[in-house]
Amino acid sequence: MTDAAPAPPAGRDSLSPALRGIFFLLLAAGCAPNGPSTPESKGRGVYASYDCKRCHRIGSEGGDTGPDLTFVGFRKSPEFLALWLKDPTAWQPNTLMPNFHLNDEARAQLAAYLGTLKGEAYRGPGGAPWQKAEPVKRGAEIYRRVGCVTCHGEGGKGGYANNNAVGGKVPAVEKAREGFSRAELVRRIADGVAHPVKAAPAGPEPLLKMPAWKDALTPDEIEAVADYVLSLAPPSKDDW
């Protein structure tokens, strides 16, 4: 959710303690002038009340201290998100995200809201400069913006835990060129990996799975990501 403890949003300090309490209760309840109250709408209120946008971006709004959440519901399930929010360091010991000690109800609501974020806010009007950059630079930005970095790590170095996956972690991709041709890697990114190989065959399914990015990205965006991933490995003798 965030890599730094959020500070109170500007302007709230002028509220009296009673009014501030009412303000947060309304946000946490997901109150809206119109429409029914749902777990997702209440989760949006929790997101607002904890000022998650201070560190996280959705579309073009929010900070960049923590991971971009625009596609978080596309790449991670509400089940995983609820577990993560319960205690981030239990899943990823070196994470910078603090534990907000959400109660079960608020945690489930926030996970439900995050689960709705599947990239709809990704394409803003007019696009962005990186969308027309050279393939490797463009792929690097897409890798970061859509959240590949939250599983495969900075520079594709991996290290992110995954329950009952071989090695206990999401695979690193920094040496993908040693095992995949460009066409094979494009196909792997496009089709995803719905069922990662389990460390214990009789054990539970790993919670982190690679989605089929062909359902979210254009073919040329997928190719740009592949070009970026292939650029991560040291030059081979064939490059000289």
Outline, from the CA principal axes? globular
CATH architecture of the largest domain: Orthogonal Bundle
Strand fraction band? Answer: under 5%
CATH class of the largest domain: Mainly Alpha
Question: What would you say about this model in short?
Answer:
This protein is an all-alpha fold and 240 residues long. Helix content is 37%, strand content 2%.
Describe the structure.
- The chain is mostly helical.
- It folds into 2 domains: 12-114, Cytochrome Bc1 Complex, Chain D, domain 2; 129-239, Cytochrome c-like domain (Cytochrome Bc1 Complex, Chain D, domain 2).
- It has helices spanning 17-28, 39-49, 72-75, 78-86, 88-91, 104-114, 135-145, 149-152, 182-191, 219-230; strands at residues 57-58, 61-62.
- Strands 1-2 form a two-stranded antiparallel ribbon.
- The termini are far apart.
- Mean pLDDT is 84; it is low at 1-15 and 17-33.
What key phrases describe this protein's structure?
single chain, 240 residues, mainly alpha, Cytochrome Bc1 Complex, Chain D, domain 2, 2 domains
List the helices and strands and how they pair.
Elements: H1 17-28, H2 39-49, E1 57-58, E2 61-62, H3 72-75, H4 78-86, H5 88-91, H6 104-114, H7 135-145, H8 149-152, H9 182-191, H10 219-230
Antiparallel strand pairs: 1-2
Helix pairs in contact: 1-2, 2-6, 4-6, 7-10, 9-10
